Every structure is written in C-alpha cells, then in structure tokens.
Amino acid sequence: MRGLAIAMVFAVTGTAVAEPINTSEAGRIFQQGRDLAQLGRFDEACELFTRSYSLDPAPGTALNLADCLERQGHLRRAWALFDDVARNSQGQSRGKLARQRADALLARLATVIVRVHDPHLAGLEVRIGDREETPVAEIRDLIEPHDIEIVATAPGRPPFKLLLHPVAGATVVAEIPAFAALPDDAAATPATRRRRSRVYLAGGLAGAGALGLAGSLGFAIVAKRTYDGAFDADCRRAPGGVECTGAGAATIDRAGTRADLATGFAIGGALLVGAAAAVFFTAPAETIAVTPIATGRALGLGVAGRF
Fold first, then answer.
1. Which of 109, 176, 260, 297 could serve as a FRET partner for 80 with CA atoms 20 to 30 Å apart?
2. CB 147 within 8 A of CB 165
3. What is the pLDDT of residues 46-86, one digit of tens each?
4. Are the C-beta atoms of 48 and 36 separated by less than 8 Å?
5. Is the Cβ–Cβ distance between 69 and 78 less than 8 Å?
6. 214: which DSSP letter?
C-alpha cells in the first residue's frame, strides 16, 4: 500500500502533481527534479524540489517535495506540506491525495503538549528539539518518534530541561514549572583582594630593587673594563703578583671602588625585592562582593568594594 501511495504521487498527471513545463527558473528546476525522481534518484530530486519550492511554492512542487522528505525520514516536515496542500486544494484530486498522505503520516508521528506555568516571564525562551516555540500557556506540536529535549530558559534563572521519549501515534505531556529564583547563597559571592595602598608600596619597592640590581650589573661591567684597561700599559702580571706604575695602581683602585659599588647595589636591590615580597604577602585583605545582576535583556555581574 505504501508503494502504491508513493507511485500515485508521481503518476497523477496535470492537476494532481506535475507543474506545467515553462521557461521560468522554478519550472525548469522542478522538471529536472521530476526527471530524477522517475529515475529513482530521489535524494537529488529532493534538492531540486526544495530549490524550486523556494522560488515558487506551487502545490504540485509541495507534493513532490513532501514525498521526498517522507522518504528521507523527515516525517513532520512532510506532513506539514501534505496538510498545507490538502487545506488549500479542497475539492481537487490533488487535495484528496494530499489529505490521504497527511492522515497516513499522523499515525507515524507523536503529539507533544507542553504546558508552561508562567508564559509571560520576561525573556522566557522555549525550544522543542531544534525548534524555538512562542511561549504560551499550552504548546501543542507534532514530533517524530525519537528522543527529543524540551528546554526552557530565562535570564537569571536556572534552565529547565526535560528529555522525552515519544511513541508513534501517542501523546506525551510535558510541564514547565515556575522558575525558581537564585538561591540566597548564590546572590552574593564573597571574594578578597589585598589592600591597594600596600600593593602600591610593594610595587614601588620591587621597582626600586630592580633598579638597584640593574645598577649593580652596570657597575660590575665598568669595574671589569677598568681593571682590564690597567694592563694595557701601566700594569703587568708578575710571578709574585701584579706590578703597576703609579698611574696603573690608581686605575686598579678605581676598579676596586666600582666593584664595591656593584656589590652594594646588588645587596640593596636584593633587600628591596625581599621587602616588596614581604609587604605584598602580609598586606591585609579587603572583602569585595560579586553579585549576579539579571534584567529582561542582560545577565551580568556587579562588583562592590573599595577601589
């Protein structure tokens, strides 16, 4: 019987299924789809029927597209097209055929009824599977018999989700209860941060310490160059030590002074860095509050404290 019904879709001529062949883009694509359908290449034919229907939603194109969708398992979309043709072609053979096919599909679909406790809640969104529905007190729809999820969301409220297991020919009812408000312990999330004045002081000490270490490195380099320069003309290395002229000895002394400065800067820089760490980690903590803020159009966080 199913094979006979499918054959009827493509066998009914003229007023039943076929669109008149014309030079329009929709008509040309439709005829290509019919040719492929007669060869049994239904997936390709469905693509062409879809394109043709988007250009010109003719009843015959709708019937052929609905048959393709049914073959591909898209039962709800196929039913919707058959039903639309039946309602708009009453009294015609095309309309009778479409009604027969739509009624046959009803037995293969399930009915879902979604009752919404508060359909007027600001920002409420309801989805049945991949379709977004207008929130009303009772939503009634046809669905294909496979697992489908009901999802309802609203700003500032925990989402509601329900997985349904509909059976062909049966009716399943889902209830979306009133959305609960956020729990009290989620209204304000305490957090801590260190006192700004101490953080700034620690940053200043750390910066000064870094400068001291950098100065130490500079003096060390200059001291090394000064010491090495003394051996260019005024000093020489002897078995018993270093022998220098008066000018060479003075050069060696200058190198030693600069080396002492490098050591002093290194010690001072290290002490300042250590002091910065101590100030930062011992700074008193300040408490701030992070509070969720929900409106009809946005969801965010509010931060309160000393800045």
1. 176
2. yes
3. 999 999 999 999 999 999 999 999 998 899 999 999 999 99
4. yes
5. yes
6. H
